[in-house]
């Protein structure tokens, strides 16, 4: 484990200094290796050279800032160590095929290159630790109904199914629906409650559909705007009971919260987690909001 621990120290140093002009000599020193030895061991463990890792992380963070903030392109360029607007634009265009300004205007969704954690295991105590894709997901305008839920009551009484059935009886009056095959579930809860018992967990449950704009809203329905944010994506195949292609032996959220999250090196954000249900194809995409 020595190499993994030392290279992880180097990765942590990089992460803490992404807004600086990082020198390879300084990174190697943190790991405790000479520069040639550091080069030799970094790439096989991480999957790319140290220079490439730094470049990808800076660009990924810059892209996320472009998508979710109103700061100028120049300000973002300087924050991540680019000497000029032009240098940042050239590098960004080579990586993503368009300029930072065009990307911001297009509202394109891009997969992010997230921090690597070498100390998380792909297989821990016989349990596979999945590595979901991380995406900067665009804003969604949803329309539906929401109810306060106690998880213990939900398990006993099937409250979420009742909310869904209630919504289906109201769906006829919805205008401007985006996709007639997709339904959205969203959960708003206190992330600090994640390890509480079922009877103590309370949250607001939303079930509805995506719309292109809000016009006349039927009585009893509510608007819900899912902001542009960072999500880990899990795909559940209902027919085959697989999550991201792996056989699942427990409920999806038990795996995500109890196995994946503690081993991921990531943190939940305060934004809504949500599910996209394709009833025709028996798939559910889980979007887990992370920082």
UniProtKB/TrEMBL annotation:
Keywords: DNA-binding, Transcription, Transcription regulation. SUPFAM superfamilies: Homeodomain-like, Probable bacterial effector-binding domain. Pfam families: Cass2 (PF14526), HTH_18 (PF12833). This is AraC family transcriptional regulator. PROSITE patterns: HTH_ARAC_FAMILY_1, HTH_ARAC_FAMILY_2. Residues 8-106 form the HTH araC/xylS-type domain. The keyword Transcription regulation applies. InterPro entries: AraC_E-bd (IPR010499), Cass2 (IPR029441), Homeodomain-like_sf (IPR009057), HTH_AraC (IPR018060), HTH_AraC-typ_CS (IPR018062), MarA-like (IPR050959), Reg_factor_effector_dom_sf (IPR011256), Tscrpt_reg_AraC-type_HTH (IPR020449). It comes from Clostridium cavendishii DSM 21758. GO terms for molecular function: DNA-binding transcription factor activity; sequence-specific DNA binding. PANTHER family: RIGHT ORIGIN-BINDING PROTEIN (PTHR47504:SF5). The keyword Metal-binding does not apply.
């Amino acid at each position: 484990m020595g190499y993994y621990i030392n290279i992880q120290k180097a990765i942590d140093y990089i992460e803490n200094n992404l807004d600086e002009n990082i020198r390879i000599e300084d990174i190697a020193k943190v790991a405790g290796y000479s520069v040639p030895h550091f080069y030799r061991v970094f790439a096989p463990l991480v999957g790319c050279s140290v220079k490439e890792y730094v470049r990808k992380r800076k660009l990924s963070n810059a892209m996320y800032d472009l998508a979710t903030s109103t700061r100028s392109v120049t300000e973002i360029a300087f924050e991540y160590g680019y000497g000029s607007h032009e240098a940042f634009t050239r590098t960004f265009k080579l990586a993503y095929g368009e300029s930072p300004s065009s990307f911001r205007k297009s509202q394109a969704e891009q997969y992010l290159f997230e921090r690597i954690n070498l100390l998380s295991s792909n297989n821990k105590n016989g349990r596979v630790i999945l590595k979901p894709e991380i995406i900067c997901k665009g804003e969604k305008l949803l329309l539906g109904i929401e109810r306060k839920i106690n998880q213990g009551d939900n398990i006993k009484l099937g409250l979420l199914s009742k909310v869904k059935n209630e919504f289906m009886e109201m769906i006829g009056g919805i205008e401007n629906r985006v996709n007639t095959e997709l339904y959205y579930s969203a959960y708003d809860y206190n992330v600090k409650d994640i390890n509480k018992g079922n009877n103590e967990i309370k949250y607001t449950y939303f079930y509805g559909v995506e719309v292109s704009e809000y016009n006349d809203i039927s009585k009893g329905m509510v608007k819900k705007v899912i902001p542009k944010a960072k999500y880990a994506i899990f795909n559940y195949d209902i027919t085959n009971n697989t999550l991201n292609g792996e056989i699942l032996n427990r409920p999806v959220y038990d795996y995500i919260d109890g196995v994946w999250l503690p081993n991921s090196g990531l943190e939940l954000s305060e934004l809504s987690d949500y599910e996209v249900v394709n009833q025709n194809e028996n798939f559910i995409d889980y979007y887990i909001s992370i920082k």
